[in-house]
Amino acid sequence: MSIKIHKPTSPGRRNSSGDTFSDITKKEPEKSLLLIRKQKAGRNNQGKITVRHRGGGVKRYIRIVDFKQVEFLDQVARVLAIEYDPNRNARIALIQYPNQIKRYIIAPDSLKTGDTVQSSHDKIDIKDGNRVRLEYIPAGMQVHNIELVPGCGGKLARGAGTSCYIMGVDEKYAQIKLPSSEIRLVPKECLATIGIVSNADHRHIRWGKAGRMRMLGFRPSVRGKVMNPVDHPHGGGEGNQSIGLTRPKTPWGKPALGVKTRGRHKTSQKLIIHRRKKKK
Questions:
Q1: Does domain 227-280 sit in CATH 3.40.980.10?
Q2: Which helix (H) or strand (E) segment is 259 a member of?
Q3: Which CATH class name applies to 3-202?
Q4: How many Å apart are CA 221 and CA 210, to the nearest integer?
Q5: In this structure, are strands 173-177 and 183-187 parallel, antiparallel, or unpaired?
Q6: % the chain with pLDDT above 70
Q7: What separation in angstroms does the CA of 81 have from each of 51, 112, 219?
Q8: Where are the domains of the chain?
Q9: I need a labelling partner for 209 at 20 to 30 A (CA). Which of 22, 154, 187, 246 fits?
Q10: Within the chain, how many helices (H) and strands (E) appear?
């Protein structure tokens, strides 16, 4: 992927940039792997808003991505195309197995049309796009789409340009360094895909104006300081002043910004060796 800089033909275009989509090889998605995406605007099944500042946006279809890749083990699949997915910032690859069945997978950075990929529970070639157990991956390799529980599908490192480092394998677990700098243990029977997730330049896009974010489904966010006291703990007062609290709070009075939200008694707590570093 490469970034194009827009000409400053209007205030909204000045200092903005976008995607050239130069790595896309197929424009129309595979119809057999599409689902209708219903608009929910951040609401749950009771109609209550559980995620604020969501709604609107351009109509999309859901691409059915195979995060497990265990349906056709040990079969070599050929990459037919690299496609755009509006529901994620990474690219997806359309692959075809020898029985002519097609599937979508998250595309590694170096994957090209015509390449082959394979998934196996045994030792196979360590190359980008192949999916294998953590116990067979050498230390120092970069992997993505990592399972936390064997057979449950990839959960870790699925965003554009992300990857995890294999630090070593013990008796039962593989030691992995996550993009957040957290180091944790993952069962060595879990599958992971070799390589870095594609479209790493996505983080450098400058959206330029609010209208582009509205097309992505993000609605305006209002600061608590400019609200009334009845609407937010930070609200009230005459003119511009501090929040008047020892720490920031959410609209519901709970501590916000930098507060740990992970449960102390979570089952997988013991698998974390080193917590992530706090961003300054």
A1: no
A2: none
A3: mainly beta
A4: 11
A5: antiparallel
A6: 99
A7: 35, 8, 33
A8: 3-202, 227-280
A9: 22
A10: 1, 17
Tokens for 105, please give them: 């997978």
pLDDT digits (tens, 9 = 90+) for 210-261: 999 999 999 999 999 999 999 999 999 888 888 988 899 999 999 998 888 8
Burial of 186 (0-12, 13-18, 19+ CB in 10 A): buried
Upper half-sphere CA count for residue 240 (Cβ side, 13 Å): 1
Angle at 271 between CA 269 and CA 276, to 5 degrees: 75
Q: What phi and psi, each to the nearest 5 degrees, are found at residue 174?
A: -105, 140
| Host H or E run for residue 155 | strand 154-156
CA dihedral over 151, 152, 156, 159, signed as positive or negative: positive
Of 196, 195, 198, residue with least CA distance to 125: 195
Give tens-digit pLDDT for 27-67.
899 999 999 999 899 999 999 999 999 999 999 999 999 99
Residue 187 per-residue DSSP state: E
Residues contacting 247, CB < 8 A, separation 6+: 255, 256, 257
